[in-house]
Specification:
The protein is mainly beta. It has seven domains: about 140 residues, no CATH class; about 100 residues, Carboxypeptidase-like, regulatory domain (Immunoglobulin-like, Sandwich), CATH 2.60.40; about 100 residues, Immunoglobulins (Immunoglobulin-like); about 90 residues, Sandwich (Immunoglobulin-like), CATH 2.60.40.1120; about 90 residues, Immunoglobulin-like; about 100 residues, Sandwich (Immunoglobulin-like); about 90 residues, Immunoglobulins (Immunoglobulin-like, Sandwich). The protein is built from five helices and 57 strands. Strands 7, 8, 10, 11 and 12 form a five-stranded antiparallel beta sheet that branches. Strands 16, 17, 19, 20 and 21 form a five-stranded antiparallel beta sheet that branches. A hairpin with a 7-residue loop joins strand 53 and strand 54. Helix 1 runs parallel beside helix 4.
Length: about 750
């Protein structure tokens, strides 16, 4: 039997179960003749548009595997390359909504392709038999499988209880320690049946979702939300069957839109449906009878907005509300249509008038008339128009309400103002507009504007300064900035549209290269230009850049024997100068060991010393600080000198130890959801774990050292304490952890809050 056949025969069932989680995958393994062979025929997840022959057939080179990863990243699909124990690497990719789901998947769910990775240490496989390689692959895949062997099964149908619904997504959640965690997804088959396998013994909740949007989401059993969902208990190795669902179609909203008379139907009106929080969900249009019907809504409350794309009718929210905040909520139930969500739209209102020059006779064309609507705390622009050659304007599309109208000359020849002769919203006259009405005679006569012109130069060289900001403040009050502009390449600027009166000017060079300057007593006359308002800005002396001296730190990382090099170990240089005060460090540089175990962290500033941390991403070896320290506080600091490398900062990583125990209440009953945190010092923990239903916990990945353990109830039922029945870190007993061993019996008996144990 070939190596391929051996591996397929041993792993097919496990891989097939993984595929059942609707995550496409391909497994490739290197054979003794250096070929990379795909073990599973499903290549649907590989890119095919740009390179259809990629990994065609069963053979795939290591280079091509790398190209697969590149192609997946380029196409925007989620991918990941990571090492795990056993010198294996895993290529992770996802399709469809996998990008969203991968972020919250447990690690066992994130693997969709596996391959031996031998680039760093090819000699590791030289003397191994095919069977040994097969066993290693089997072990690697087994680590990826869910830890449990229980399952939940059921059938999903339509509301009639008979019509099977295929492709319904079934999501399984586990409620533990005060929070709900996603466990897995699966889909119903053509008969509406599903099986959510690989579950640990425990209590779960199940949600059914139709990706097609036809059927309403529900939780087992017939609950629209998780709050009312029934719990599903799974026993070790058991099947909890009959967890069925009959899904109703999603709800709908329907109604009639008429004119202001409540009779004349309005066709082509856009009806928009919003969530209660204000997010637009979708829209539809009324038919010739003024009717509309919008579906695909989950049970809940919604807002409905009616608007006329032709602009002939005033928009409104249901029910006769002008603003979203005043809209009446529409309740929708699954499988039902909420009818009678009607609207009678009034014709739009408008404001009209004429704009003339200072003599109140000469019509001014090209003047912008802008309407403002009060939004509770400010005036919001809601539309604008431009005067014609006769000076006339019509500002339409308005609903009944109170408005301000502002007039601006884009050419800057006339002073902008609000109706009527107001220079700010606080001094403007408001215009009251009724429903389906025209308010005429909102006329204004604009005053001729003055201008200020000048040149900005460098006070030292006299050369012009481009891009300098020039701001004009009316009446010397800097809280009122009237106009601003920038100088051209020749240093010249011009401020236009200014009302007659005294001004203060401020000149600010861009980039902070020159000191700012001001000019006061600048008088502007209507229709005239105040020229030669110049400024010479003093250059700010440049400060020579500070060249930060840096050095490097280098060394070698080996296994417990102090000889075998470890590749792929992450080495980070931390600045922990304030660790004892603040309790944290921050990274200043990092590196990864090569095949020879060597690393070099470069360009580290010399002004501080560093705490070096060595971490094996695969988790085979315990992380540690230099030298053999479990805490940055007790780690030996490493100094660097300018333009040199501090050598021989080595580490020999050891196998991790563990701490385990049982947490109970005062009567000896096991307590679940109690977090055990392991502290090497009083500032921060290095690892933690939570107790299960039997009260047992295990915390791994620990360097051989003395620790103290703190117990905290995640559900806030019991008081926290330190081992052994201590109220503080200082009073706690030490727990000695040795390399590769489990320190057991680190138990705790917690008292209810408010009591003393």
């Amino acid at each position: 039997m070939s190596v391929t056949q051996v591996i397929e025969s041993q792993l097919w069932s496990e891989l097939d179960a993984m595929a059942g989680r609707h995550v496409p995958f391909v497994v490739v393994v290197q054979l003794p003749d250096s070929r990379w062979v795909r073990l599973v025929a499903d290549a649907s997840s590989l890119p095919s548009s740009d390179e259809p022959s990629l990994c065609a057939g069963i053979e795939c080179t290591l280079e091509q595997v790398g190209r697969v990863l590149t192609e997946e990243q380029r196409s925007g699909r989620v991918s990941e390359f990571r090492r795990v124990p056993g010198n294996s690497a895993f290529f992770v990719q996802g399709d469809g909504d996998a990008a969203e789901r991968l972020a919250r998947m447990p690690e066992v769910e994130r693997i969709v392709a596996a391959a031996f990775y031998v680039a760093e240490r090819p000699q590791a496989f030289t003397n191994e038999s095919a069977a040994a390689r097969t066993d290693a692959t089997a072990a690697a895949v087994n680590r990826l499988k869910p830890a449990g062997d229980g399952q939940i099964t059921g059938t999903v149908t339509a509301a009639d209880g008979a019509t099977p619904l295929p492709n319904i997504r079934v999501s399984v959640y586990r409620y533990q320690c005060g929070s709900r965690a996603w466990v897995l997804d699966t889909n119903t088959d053509g008969a509406g049946q599903y099986a959510a396998a690989g579950l640990e013994a425990g209590t779960y909740q199940v949600r059914y979702t139709d990706p097609g949007g036809v059927y309403a989401t529900e939780w087992y059993d017939d609950s629209p939300t998780s709050v009312g969902a029934d719990e599903v208990v799974v026993a070790t190795g058991g099947t909890t069957a009959g967890i069925n669902a009959a899904l109703a179609e999603r709800g709908r909203i329907a109604g009639l839109v008429t004119g202001a008379d409540g009779v004349t139907p309005l066709a082509g009106i856009t009806v928009e449906v919003y969530s209660q929080g204000g997010s637009l969900l979708g829209s539809t249009n009324t038919d010739t009878a003024g009717q509309y019907n919008y579906g695909g809504l989950e049970a809940g409350n919604y807002k409905v907005y009616f608007r006329d794309p032709a602009g002939q009718h005033a928009p409104e929210w249901y029910d006769d509300a002008l603003k979203s905040g005043n809209a009446k909520l529409v309740a929708v139930s699954a499988g039902a249509t909420t009818e009678g969500i009607n609207a009678s739209l009034a014709g739009v209102s408008r404001i009209t008038g004429t704009v003339t020059g200072p003599n109140s006779l000469t019509p001014l064309g090209g003047i912008r008339a802008k309407g403002y609507w009060y939004e509770g705390s400010y005036w919001q622009e809601i539309g604008d128009t431009t005067t014609d050659v006769s000076g006339g304007y019509s500002l339409g599309g308005l609903v009944a309400g109170v408005y301000l109208v502002r007039f601006e000359d884009p050419a800057g020849n006339y002073v902008a103002e609000y109706y009527n002769d107001g220079h700010s919203s606080s001094t403007a006259d408001s215009v009251s507009v009724g429903a389906d009405a025209t308010v005429a005679g909102v006329d204004v006569s604009l005053a001729a504007a003055g201008r200020i012109r000048g040149t900005v130069t460098n006070a030292g060289s006299g050369s012009p300064l481009a891009n300098t900001y020039v701001s004009a403040y009316y009446g010397y009050n800097e809280s009122w900035q009237v106009a601003t502009t920038q100088t051209a390449s020749n240093g010249v600027y011009e401020l236009s549209g200014l009302i007659a009166g005294p001004y203060r000017l401020r000149f600010s060079a861009s980039g902070g290269t020159h000191r700012s300057a001001t000019r006061t007593g600048v008088t502007v006359t209507s229709g005239a230009t105040t020229a030669d308002v110049n400024a010479a800005l003093v250059p700010i002396p440049s400060t020579p850049p500070v060249v930060q001296e840096t050095g490097n730190i280098a060394g070698r990382v080996t296994g417990p024997d102090g000889v075998t090099p470890l590749a792929g170990v992450q080495v980070v240089a931390y600045n922990c100068s304030n660790y004892s005060y603040y309790g944290y460090c921050y990274s200043r540089g990092s590196a990864q060991t090569g095949a020879d175990g060597r690393y070099e962290v470069k360009w580290l500033p010399t002004y501080t010393s560093y705490v070096m941390r060595f971490n094996d991403p695969a988790g085979v070896y315990a992380p540690e600080y230099y030298q053999d320290s479990a805490s940055p506080d007790s780690a030996t600091r490493v100094s660097v000198s300018a333009n040199t490398t501090t050598q021989d900062i080595n580490a020999s990583l050891s196998l991790p130890g563990q701490v385990s125990g049982v947490v109970t209440d005062g009567d000896g009953n096991p307590l679940a959801c109690v977090r055990a945190e392991v502290y090497p010092d009083s500032w921060s923990s290095v690892a933690s774990g939570a107790s299960d239903e039997t009260g047992r916990y295990t915390v791994g990945g620990l360097l051989a050292a003395a620790y103290r353990v703190r117990f905290t109830d995640l559900l806030s039922r019991y008081a926290s304490e330190w081992y052994n029945n201590a109220s503080s870190y200082a009073a706690a007993s030490n727990v000695i952890v040795t390399s590769g061993n489990v320190t057991g019996g680190v138990d705790a008996q917690l008292a209810p809050r408010g009591q003393i144990a």
